[in-house]
Amino acid sequence: MATIKSTSYSIYIGDKSFDALNNFLSKNKYSSYYIICDEHTFEFCLSTLLFHIPKLNDAEIIELESGEDKKTLETCLQVWGALTDTGADKKSLIINLGGGVITDLGGFVASTFKRGIDFINIPTTLLSMVDASVGGKTGVDFEGIKNHIGTTCEPKAVFINPLFLETLSERQIKNGYAEVIKIALIADAKFWQELKKLKHAKEFCTEKIITKSVELKNAIVKKDLYEMDLRKSLNFGHSIGHALESALLKFNKDILHGEAIVAGMIMEAELAKILKKISQKEYKEIIKYTTSIYKKIKITKEIEAQLLKYIIHDKKNEAANLCFALPNNIGHYNLACGIQMDLIKKVLSNY
Ligand code: GLY
Q1: Residues forming a β-bridge with 15
Q2: Residue 78 and residue 37: Cα distance in Å, rounded?
Q3: Which of 119, 179, 307, 341 could cross-link with 94 by S-S, CB 3.0 to 4.6 Å?
Q4: Residue 321: its pLDDT value, please?
Q5: What does the pLDDT read at residue 191?
Q6: Cβ of residue 136 lying under 6 Å from some atom of ligand 1
Q7: Count of other CB atoms within 10 angstroms of residue 243
Q8: 232 lines ligand 1 (CB under 6 A)
Q9: Quick one: 40 and 112 in the same domain?
Q10: Residues 6 or more apart in contact with residue 150 via CB below 8 angstroms
């Protein structure tokens, strides 16, 4: 098992992470336990968790409807209500068992309930293992804008057990792998060279890949928890990608976060090339590898118009100054501000 130390908590990775969780629950005394899950993790993950962690057999289960469209304040009201009705107190522990929606929303609920109670994350998708569960970003979407309302509040621990990936579809594995590609492109050129050799979904989610990705993300978060500078690098592909994801969801299109982020990385890699932050050769490498794994997304004129509106809302922007986190040679990062809308329109039309 790998143990990665973050600012104030540990991240345990591997099949022994259940032992680490038993240990955590023995050492830390809580008045009650609440497991937040969705219908998928209720069906596929909860019984495994309860089998391995006897202390949780008395936990209250809060089952939410799955889906990014449920990552809302209305769902939070439902959870705050359930916590209140069952007498949760300051010493209750919330256990987020699920993908990014559950860890983001559950963390937000915990960070605001009675001004903050402890929570731990048990991510069950590759996306939440390598990204969402680590780093203390919590929140929900609002008026169609992704993660518009939220807090920075770190979990007490994260337990990553790759066992949960066995029931994930190939599409879901690729969804998470997009964040693995991202972290390599902005933080570790050698890791990128290793990734380029991988072709099949089962190679994308090994314990080694997960551990390396979490180590890289954690190293960034430890230096800049509140995203004043370096952490902005984690937004590579997300300025356009998030806006694209929000626009597609607004028009009820079937899109996963990672799929939109890959399209965002392709377009933002072109921006990086135009701004001479990466070479033509590096640009081609990025396009060749990502397009060998991910299908192109159809962006209609109405989606493009909506996407451009969402870009303005991007949290990295200050006033009307559009900023993008771009690779600066593969494996490094640079924040490029003052990007003109025309340039964004150009990479959109070239996509
Ligand atoms: N997912 C980006 C971050 O945690 O900063």
Answers
A1: none
A2: 13
A3: 119
A4: 79
A5: 98
A6: no
A7: 26
A8: no
A9: yes
A10: 104, 108, 137, 138, 139, 140
What six digits make up the tokens of 96? 């987020």
Phi then psi for 334, rounded to 5 degrees?
-150, 140
Contact 286, 267 (CB under 8 A): no
Provide CB contacts within 8 A for 99, sequence distance 6+: 38, 41, 123, 124, 125, 127, 128, 132
pLDDT of residue 146: 83
CA quadruple 333, 293, 200, 127: dihedral, nearest 10: 50
- Indicate if ligand 1 lies below 6 Å from the C-beta of 104: no
Q: Which atom of ligand 1 is nearest to the CA of 227?
A: 5
pLDDT digits (tens, 9 = 90+) for 76-104: 999 999 999 999 999 999 999 999 999 99
pLDDT per residue over 16-62, tens digit each? 999 999 999 999 999 999 999 999 999 999 999 999 999 999 999 99
- What's the total number of domains in the chain? 2
The residue among 167, 191, 224 that closes a domain is: 167
pLDDT at 320: 66
Range of the domain at 136: 2-167
Which regions of the chain are under pLDDT 70?
314-320
Instruction: Kindly report the CATH number assigned to the domain that includes residue 163.
Output: 3.40.50.1970
pLDDT at 317: 60
